[in-house]
């Protein structure tokens, strides 16, 4: 094992009493002077190519044997190393290591809706109004005053989730970015609206091209749910995705879908991860669509749904 | 009768006994969670019988509103009476709900149109079962926060204040986890999860039921119950691996009754069919 010469060797040599210039020349750290070369031509061992740079300044490797350079240099016995410690050894005590993050320890993504109000927003968004609230005294008085028969007791509308929810999840190319958000939101919807009364179907780009409960093999023509069910769409409604997205749902397809839902006695509502400013006018005119973002509150959801 | 609410046969685990004691000590409702058929709804009747307490139950549906548990007001009858020119007093159209009966029996009895069914039990102690609260809209648990927390409420139509009259009561609420309950409601309850009993526990439950309703458990009955219990425990593991609904304790008792009546054991040729019909109950064919 040979050791590359470095400045430490020169320092050791000087500390041992060697003349610095001489030692440097002998170690090949400086070009040999003419007079030295003339006086001791045979002493040049390591400095035969003094100008050649060291290819890498790696630290010296440990040596266990006496450096043969000393023998070659004859009267310079201070160069051999007696003891070398492995590189990197310190007196620092090893501390406890943090556990490496595993596959299940990755940080949870921040949900699009504010976690504290998600349940309230979903309740406001998914509840449908039914006329079984408190008796509507004003309407009753009106009927009495006009002397009309009261065939149905007028009642105030009351929001309820008992008619169930159909969630239509857009898994088209433009919504790939939001796949995790869609999955998490469906879980929250089931928790709020009930497992038994929540049905989930998937589609790409627009539901009229086919929906199904699982992968594309299960997709069939879309059929609206039973009367009174809230239909929630988690979609970009053709807003996002590549500019030249050739499978983007057309306004005509969306209108056809919305009409079929309304004709079945159901009420559609959408959550879109894009601001209202990017929504096309036909969409805002056709159905309530809410921004799927932190700023959405239960009050806004309730107002949007009531406006229809 | 497969589902009895007489409270005669119930095997309480130490954990459940502790939960009941804590609910009594704190005055909080006891929320029972657990899979369907795990004995949540039967507990209230059992405790009421054990303590000779009055027992009231309200099975919640998707149409239930919080007020239904406090009182109902017969608007239609009042309207009809008014139209017919009869004298109308609002108090006559108020019908007390289960919590009114539990809080103030005398006051409830004054308003009730029906006679009380619990008259033979202690007037100072009551147990109320609010069954399957998760079936109702999320507003229902929120609407019960104040009445359950303060033991009082106000009847809006008559402005009557209903307050706790005397004695103690225990409100037991059950949920099948159909939907999440509001955190505010959970914070006000003592919550306990009813675990599936192991094979020994199932045999003990079978013994209690046979001793109570069938005149006792014979040695062949016990052997059959043991076989069935071990099959049910194995089946639960298998179905949980497949993410299917595991058989419940109630279904175990049904299978036991069927096996006793029909002379079927786990080695009988019909066992597999009985198991599929009474325990597995697959949703789809095949």
Automatic annotation (TrEMBL), chain A:
Species assigned in the record: Lentzea miocenica
Protein name in the entry: Uncharacterized protein
Residue segments, region Disordered: 34-66, 87-113
Low complexity: bias regions: 34-51
Compositional bias segments (type: Pro residues): 52-62
Automatic annotation (TrEMBL), chain B:
CDD domains with a match to the protein in the record: AAA
UniProt cross-references to InterPro entries, sorted A to Z: AAA+_ATPase (IPR003593), ATPase_dyneun-rel_AAA (IPR011704), CbbQ/NirQ/NorQ/GpvN (IPR050764), P-loop_NTPase (IPR027417)
Domain of life: Bacteria
Annotated TM spans: none
Boundaries of every AAA+ ATPase domain copy: 26-198
Name this protein carries in UniProt: MoxR family ATPase
């Amino acid at each position: 094992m040979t050791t590359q010469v470095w400045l430490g060797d020169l320092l050791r040599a000087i500390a041992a009493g060697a003349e610095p210039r001489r030692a440097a020349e002998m170690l090949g750290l400086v070009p040999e002077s003419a007079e030295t070369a003339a006086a001791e031509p045979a002493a040049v061992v390591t400095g035969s190519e003094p100008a050649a740079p060291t290819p890498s300044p790696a630290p010296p490797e440990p040596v266990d044997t006496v450096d043969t350079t000393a023998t070659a240099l004859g009267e310079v016995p201070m160069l051999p190393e007696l003891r070398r410690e492995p590189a990197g050894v310190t007196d620092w005590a090893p501390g406890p290591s943090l556990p490496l993050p595993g596959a299940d320890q990755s940080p949870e993504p921040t949900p699009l809706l504010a976690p504290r109000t998600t349940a309230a927003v979903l309740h406001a968004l998914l509840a449908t109004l039914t006329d079984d609230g408190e008796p509507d005294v004003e309407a009753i008085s009106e009927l009495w005053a006009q002397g009309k028969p009261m065939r149905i007791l007028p009642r105030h509308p009351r929001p309820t989730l008992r008619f169930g929810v159909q969630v239509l999840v857009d898994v088209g190319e433009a919504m790939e970015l939001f796949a995790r958000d869609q999955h998490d939101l469906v879980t929250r919807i089931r928790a709020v609206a009930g497992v038994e009364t929540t049905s989930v179907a998937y589609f790409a780009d627009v539901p009229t091209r086919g929906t199904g409960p699982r992968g594309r093999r299960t997709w069939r023509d879309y059929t609206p749910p039973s009367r009174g069910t809230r239909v929630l769409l988690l979609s970009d409604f053709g807003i996002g995705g590549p500019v030249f997205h050739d499978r983007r749902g057309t306004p005509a397809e969306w209108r056809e879908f919305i009409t079929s839902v309304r004709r079945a006695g159901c009420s559609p509502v959408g959550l879109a991860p894009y601001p209202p400013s990017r929504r096309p006018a036909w969409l805002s005119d056709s159905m309530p669509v809410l921004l799927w973002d932190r700023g959405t509150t239960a009050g806004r959801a309730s107002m949007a749904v009531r406006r229809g | 009768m497969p589902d009895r609410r007489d409270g005669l046969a119930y095997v309480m685990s130490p954990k459940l006994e502790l939960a009941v004691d804590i609910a009594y000590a704190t005055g909080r409702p006891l929320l029972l969670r657990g899979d369907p058929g795990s004995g949540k709804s039967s507990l209230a009747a059992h405790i009421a019988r054990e303590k000779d307490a009055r027992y009231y139950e309200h099975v919640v549906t998707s149409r239930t509103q919080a007020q239904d548990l406090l009182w109902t007001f017969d608007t239609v009858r009042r309207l009809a009476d008014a139209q017919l020119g009869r004298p109308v007093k609002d108090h006559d159209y108020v019908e007390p709900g289960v919590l009114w009966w539990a809080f103030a029996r005398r006051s409830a009895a004054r308003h009730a149109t029906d006679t009380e069914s619990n008259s033979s039990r202690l007037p100072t102690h009551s147990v109320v079962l609010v069954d399957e609260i998760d079936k109702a809209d999320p507003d229902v648990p929120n609407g019960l926060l104040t009445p359950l927390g303060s033991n009082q409420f106000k009847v809006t139509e008559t402005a009557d204040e209903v307050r706790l009259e005397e004695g103690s009561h225990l409100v037991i609420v059950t949920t099948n986890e159909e939907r999440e309950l509001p955190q505010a409601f959970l914070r006000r309850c003592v919550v306990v999860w009813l675990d599936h009993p192991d094979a020994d526990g199932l045999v003990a439950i079978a013994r209690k039921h046979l001793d109570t309703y069938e005149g006792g458990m014979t040695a062949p009955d016990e052997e059959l119950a043991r076989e069935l219990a071990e099959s049910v425990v194995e089946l639960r593991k298998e179905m949980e691996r497949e993410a299917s609904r595991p058989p419940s304790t109630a279904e175990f008792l049904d299978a036991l009754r069927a096996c006793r009546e029909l002379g079927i054991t786990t080695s009988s040729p019909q066992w597999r069919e009985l198991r599929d019909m009474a325990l597995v109950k697959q949703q789809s064919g095949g």
